[in-house]
Amino acid sequence: MTPRRTHIVGAGVAGLSAALAVTADGGEAVLYEAAPHPGGRCRTLHPTDGFDHDNGTHVLFTANGRALDLLRTVGARERWVEPEAKGLPLYDGRTGEMRRVGLSPWSWLLPSRRPQGLTLSDLMRIMRLVFASKDCPVAAIIGKRPIMDSLIEPLTVAVLNTPPDQASAQRLACALRQLIRPGAGRLLVARNGLSQDLIEPAVATLQTRGVPVLTGQRLRNLLTVNGRVIGLALSDRTVMLGPDDRVILALPPYEVERLLPALPVPTQFEPIINVHYRMEGLKHPRFIGFTGTLAQWALIRDNHVSVTVSAADAVVDQNAPDVAARIWREIAPALRSLGLDAHPDRQPEMRVVKEKRATIRQAAEILPQPPLRPLANLALAGDWIGSLPATIESAVMAGEHAASILHHARGTRATLVKDRALKTENAA
Ligand SMILES: Cc1cc2nc3c(=O)[nH]c(=O)nc-3n(C[C@H](O)[C@H](O)[C@H](O)COP(=O)(O)OP(=O)(O)OC[C@H]3O[C@@H](n4cnc5c(N)ncnc54)[C@H](O)[C@@H]3O)c2cc1C
Predict the structure, then answer these.
(1) Which of 21, 113, 146, 382 is the most exposed place for a label (fewest CB within 10 A)?
(2) Would you say residue 178 has pLDDT above 60?
(3) Same structural domain for residues 286 and 351?
(4) What is the mean pLDDT of residues 381-395?
């Protein structure tokens, strides 16, 4: 009897999570990745000039239980550190003031951690947001108030990568309900980098479980017969499936649409720009938020500072050096106040990374969603599946869920098919 194998396409966080779930109790899996390296949108870049940095800063919260469990499984939980245990420093580019803000509402009991301008009426609006029963843009609940600028907008673009005048209140509420639990609002970053502190440990764990991670293998086509996958046409080979084999597509929605064109998938995306300045930083990572500037966040590592502009539609097509120069002038005073040798007129060497389809646009509307098992032996995964914010946490959950659906599904096994002619068919 041939063993049952799960073929997982896409070695981003969702694909790695699916592979870990499939193999947790002895299942067999193989991963195919189009790029030369695993990690997808969550990875470290290693250019030839030796200036290594992540594609973009990623944060986790202690509320992200499934992502943290995955880190524990691969022995990397301790590599994610809390840079700002005393509350997040927020720098106001208009006034030059720096103050700390607690991300957990419980910390607001201390006046020194309260968002600027917080009133009782703001608290009531935040509660309405947290328990939003009907969807609408975040801005429709909060309105134009100081709290929007000092807390809600930075939080909304950080979590949903969509501006508050469009962002879904209900999606944000899913994250806020997790964050308000005591102890859940602590912000974590990878101490060294995304590949070293997440992707490589996950791949190493899979390798100890005998899972091949085959890079440079783009899935060109699915070969299907009678509503089930019988083969994978990859970059340089075609893999025929055994009768018990399953497939998980852990791919972005536009790839799922190309492979299975009849499926409804989200089609709108939001960009994120990251500018990485090569300079002497700080041994222990620091993390600052900005208001009144183009930049929203900066992560300071020992040899560079990475600055994030989320929901970056307005600037993504602008000349990259101009964007980097503007950001540098705005943030240099804040970096200086943390002890870095940063002067607005002396911009260090930098690199700009534009992720044009960083996440789906998470607007206040019903986003198209495909069935999770569109073919008998195929399930979908990816951060965009479901109604949670599209983040590492949702990618981990989607990977685990896809593995579980196939494990428990009936009718994934092939029955004898008379017509063995291969065809690529539209699902759904
Ligand atoms: C700049 C930036 C900042 C972010 N910040 C945060 C953050 O702070 N916190 C957070 O939680 N999340 C953040 N995210 C989101 C997070 O990166 C994603 O939610 C997560 O990485 C998605 O993982 P995924 O596996 O679903 O998709 P992907 O990472 O897109 O993985 C899909 C994989 O499939 C591969 N692939 C595509 N087509 C094929 C094919 N035909 N055949 C084979 N392989 C294929 C791709 O190369 C890729 O490796 C950020 C994203 C970006 C871009």
Answers:
(1) 146
(2) yes
(3) yes
(4) 96
- The best mutation among 44, 54, 391, 394 to test binding of ligand 1, ranked by most ligand atoms within 8 Å of the C-beta, falls on 391
The CATH number of the domain where 273 resides is what?
3.90.660.10
Spacing, Cα 42 to ligand 1 middle (Å): 6
Specify the residue with its C-alpha closest to ligand 1, atom 8.
Answer: 58
| Residue ranges around ligand 1 (CB below 6 Å) | 9-15, 32-35, 40-42, 55-56, 58-59, 218-219, 250-252, 255, 272, 274, 355, 358-359, 382-383, 390-393, 395
The tens digit of pLDDT for each residue in 265-301 reads: 999 999 999 999 999 999 999 999 999 999 999 999 9
Most confident of the following: 130-134, 327-331, 417-421: 327-331
Domain limits for position 401: 5-36+215-267+366-408
| pTM of model > 0.70 | yes
Look at ligand 1, atom 27, and give the residue with the nearest C-alpha: 12
Residue 106 maps to a domain: no
Q: Which residues contact 294 (CB under 8 A, 6 or more apart)?
A: 309, 315, 323, 326, 327, 330
Confidence of residue 106 (pLDDT cuts 50, 70, 90): confident
Q: What is the pLDDT of residues 27-52, one digit of tens each?
A: 999 999 999 999 999 999 999 999 99
Distance 273 CA to ligand 1 centre (A): 15
Are residues 232 and 342 located together in one domain of the fold?
no
- Count of domains in the chain? 3
